[in-house]
Amino acid sequence: MAGKFEPKVPVNLDPPKDDPISAEELAKADGTEGQKAYVAIKGKVYDVSGNKAYREGGSYHVFAGKDASRALAKTSTKPEDVRPEWQDLDEKEKQTLDDWNTFFSNRYNVVGVVQGATNLA
């Protein structure tokens, strides 16, 4: 199952960056009014701007401009679940989060790391 999370169409990704991205900068990248759309997972920031689901009105817009680790682990789109804390989740949810991290890393460029993130893996 090595290709389980591989995209159907090959994606050419830039080398991952580890530039610090402030919480404020992340929050501005919320996919509204022509802004970029960033989603962080375990402090790693992905540029999802090319996917309209993360833009205003999209089904995953709730994640844009935030570290969505907890919500992704719980497969939730509830705004109250969209937060960085994941360490207290059960093993199944942690595995789901790792799967999402793999999914994103195969599709979206890593543009940096949330400055001061305490939820890095």
Detailed description of the structure:
By secondary structure, this protein is α/β, with parallel strands linked by helices. Helix content is 21%, strand content 15%. The chain contains three helices and five strands. The two termini are 23 Å apart. The mean pLDDT is 93.
User: Number of helix segments?
Assistant: 3
Shape: globular
Kindly report the spatial arrangement of strands forming the biggest sheet.
Answer: 1-5-3-2-4
One letter per element, helices H and strands E, the order comes to: EHEEEHHE
**Count of DSSP strands:** 5
Would you tell me the overall average pLDDT?
93
Q: Which consecutive residue ranges, at least 5 long each, have pLDDT under 50?
A: none
Brief description of this entry?
The chain is α/β, with parallel strands linked by helices and 121 residues long. The chain has helices spanning 23-28, 69-73, 91-105, and strands at residues 20-21, 38-41, 44-47, 66-67, 109-114.
Key features of this structure:
five-stranded mixed sheet, 121 residues, alpha/beta, 3 helices, globular
Element layout with pairings:
Elements: E1 20-21, H1 23-28, E2 38-41, E3 44-47, E4 66-67, H2 69-73, H3 91-105, E5 109-114
Parallel strand pairs: 1-5, 2-4
Antiparallel strand pairs: 2-3, 3-5
